[in-house]
Write a structure and sequence with these properties.
Blueprint lengths: L3 E10 L6 E9 L4 E12 L2 E9 L5 E5 L2 E5 L2 H5 L4 H4 L3 E4 L5
Antiparallel strand pairs: 1-2, 1-7, 2-3, 3-4, 4-5, 5-6
Amino acid sequence: MANKKVHWFRKLFNGYEPDNEVRVDAEDKGDRYEITGIKGTMRANDGNSEISVEKQADGSYTWRNDNKIGTADSFDEAYRNLPALITDPDEYYDGDVIE
């Protein structure tokens, strides 16, 4: 049986920076959600940037931090390449899961 794909939106709050929102994609594993991707256009005081992490067919992950692009073996490894506005916000709020 295939895992059901779901997503939700995460609001990010960072001090004096503009508030942001990213889409989080995941697979419903029954007892937990396994995040498979994240994407958004980030607004910051010093400009905007595109960010994403996407799972590939071979199980690897491609990440993008504006004009920097790379690959990683795991979501966590790829996620560490995103800016701190995403990976370590002052506060965040996850919205409801959308099936």
